[in-house]
Amino acid sequence: MAGSYAELDGKIWIDGTLVDWKDANVHLLTHAMHYASAVFEGERAYSGKIFESRRHSKRLIASGRALDMEIPYSIDEIEAAKYETMKANGLDDAYVRVLAWRGAGEDMGVSSARNPVRMAVATWAWGNYYGDAKMKGAKLDIARWKRPSPETAPYTAKAAGLYMICTMSKHAAEAKGCSDAMMFDYRGYVAEATGANIFFVKNGEVHTPDPDCFLNGITRQTVLGMLRDRGIKVHERHIMPEELEGFEQCWLTGTAAEVTPVGQIGDYNFEVGELTRDIAESYEKLVRT
C-alpha cells in the first residue's frame, strides 16, 4: 500500500457509529496512548466470511478481562460491528482489525478504572503479509529481545503493550534485509516470530514450541488440527536454539501471515518442502470453504 493508513477512504466503526475514515480520531490524553491499555484482534475475511470470527471476538473479550478492562460489547455485537464495517467499505476479501482501549476520562495516571472502554473496527484490503516470501520462503533474523516470563505480563492476551519488543525486533530484521525475526523466550527456548507462531519439520514429524509464555494463535491451533487429521505426529515442546540446525522445513502461522514458508533463520537454511506446501495450500482452501 502506498501512502498513510490515516489517508485511506472508507468507514471505521467506533463505539457503535460508522464514521469517515479520516475522522476516526481519539484525544491525545487517551489512556491507551500513554499506558498501552489496549487489546486487539487481527482477522481475515475471505469471500465475505471472516475466518474463525467468533473465536477472535471471544478472545478479544478475554484479552480485555486479562487487562482488567471489561469490553462493553457482547460477542454478537462485536460480530455485527465487523460485518457492518466490511459492508460499509464494500469489502469481501479483507483484513479486519478490532481494537478495544481505555479512553480519555477522569484518570490520567497509571490507574484508569474510571475511564471508558472504547472499541473500533477497521477493515481494508491487504495482500500477503510477507510479500513474495509466501512462495519462496521468508528470511528471518534472530531477535535480541525475548518473550517475557508469564509472571511478567498476561501472555494469553493479545495486548498492545506486548508488541513493543516485536516492533523493535522487526525493524532490526528489516534493516538486515529480512522479512521478520524469530524470538527466543526468557529461558532461551525458541518461541515465535514477531507476529506469528512457528513450526519445524524433521523426519516427517512436526515440532512447534509450547505456547507457555506467548500467544497460542488461532491459526496455529487450526494448523495443528490439520496436521493431526493427516496423522502427522506433532511435538509441542521446548525447542533449544541448537536444534535449528537439524530441522529440514519451517513455516510461520498467523492471521496476517496465514501459512508462510521460511527459507532461512539466521545462518540456518530450510527447504520449502512437500509438507510445508501441502499445509499452506490446504489452509488456503480451508479459509475459503
Describe this structure in words.
The chain is of the alpha+beta class and 289 residues long. Helix content is 26%, strand content 30%. It contains 7 helices and 15 strands. The strands form 2 sheets. Strands 7, 8, 9, 10, 11, 12, 13, 14 and 15 form a 9-stranded mixed beta sheet that branches. Helix 2 crosses helix 3.
CATH homologous superfamily descriptor of the largest domain: D-amino Acid Aminotransferase, subunit A, domain 2
* C-alpha end-to-end distance: 27 Å
Low-confidence stretches: none
Broad shape: globular
Q: Main beta sheet: strand number and arrangement?
A: 9 strands, mixed
Structural class call reads: alpha+beta
Total number of helices: 7
Q: What is the CATH architecture annotation of the largest domain? A: Alpha-Beta Barrel
The level-1 CATH class of the largest domain? Alpha Beta
Question: What is the averaged pLDDT score?
Answer: 96
Percent of sequence in beta strands:
25-35%
Overall number of structural domains: 2
Topology, pairings included?
Elements: E1 11-14, E2 17-20, H1 31-35, E3 38-46, E4 49-50, H2 53-66, H3 75-88, E5 94-102, E6 117-124, H4 133-136, E7 138-147, H5 164-175, E8 180-185, E9 190-193, E10 197-202, E11 205-209, H6 218-229, E12 234-237, E13 249-254, E14 258-265, E15 268-269, H7 274-286
Parallel strand pairs: 7-8, 7-14, 11-12
Antiparallel strand pairs: 1-2, 1-6, 3-4, 3-5, 5-6, 8-9, 10-11, 10-13, 13-14, 14-15
Helix pairs in contact: 2-3
